[in-house]
Specification:
It contains nine helices and no strands. With about 180 residues, the protein is mostly helical. It has a domain at about 55-175: AhpD-like, CATH 1.20.1290. It is globular and about 50 Å long. The model has no long low-confidence stretch (mean pLDDT about 95). It holds the Pfam family CMD.
Length: about 180
């Protein structure tokens, strides 16, 4: 049971979201509908990031790495489904939860994402140098930060609401496996 009200799916606030997502609105969306301003900000941020330089695959891998590091099982389950739709394999999805990827450049972005989350943005010079050395530009770095913020918004919402998982659940990777970066 959610600790916050799940707005009825027939509520007028949810009409435009239902048109985009379909009739079965996920519980986090129904929680967001308690604040039309917050809901608008959430969808605006995610929609704008969808027009950025990061590919859908990389955005989902970042969401998995950050969601796992922040202990949000709902988000990890949700982004596993979305990641599959981008063509990520089960192995890539599993690796992303630990901040790993078969591609070294993507892995650098995932590690950096987890460092941003763990250090609340105050990454070290060495961490910033590492992501740059992997081939990410300053514009990419800012976009990675924005993706971490967008993911954190969803993670924190689900923590606050204690959202019930209404989709196939995915287990978190235990923190001990995630090389000392904990959020």
């Amino acid at each position: 049971m959610s600790r916050l009200n799940l707005v009825d799916a027939s509520h007028a606030t949810l009409k435009p979201i239902k048109e985009k997502l379909g009739a079965n609105l996920p519980p986090p969306v129904r929680v967001l509908a308690n604040s039309p301003a917050a809901m608008s900000a959430f969808f605006a941020l995610h929609g704008t990031l969808g027009q950025g330089q990061l590919t859908p695959r990389v955005r989902e891998q970042i969401a998995l790495a950050v969601g796992n590091a922040q202990g949000c099982r709902y988000c990890v389950s949700h982004h596993t489904q979305l990641g599959r739709k981008t063509g990520l394999s089960d192995q890539e999805l599993d690796q992303a939860r630990s901040g790993k990827a078969p591609d070294a450049k993507v892995e650098a972005a995932l590690q950096f994402s987890r460092q941003i989350a763990a250090r609340r943005g105050a990454v070290t010079d060495a961490e910033l140098a590492a992501v740059r050395a992997a081939g990410w530009t300053d514009g990419d770095v800012v976009e990675i930060l924005a993706q971490v913020v967008a993911t954190t918004f969803g993670n924190y919402l689900n923590h606050l609401a204690q959202t019930e998982i209404d989709i196939p659940p995915v287990d978190l990777v235990p923190a001990a496996v995630i090389d000392g970066i904990h959020a």
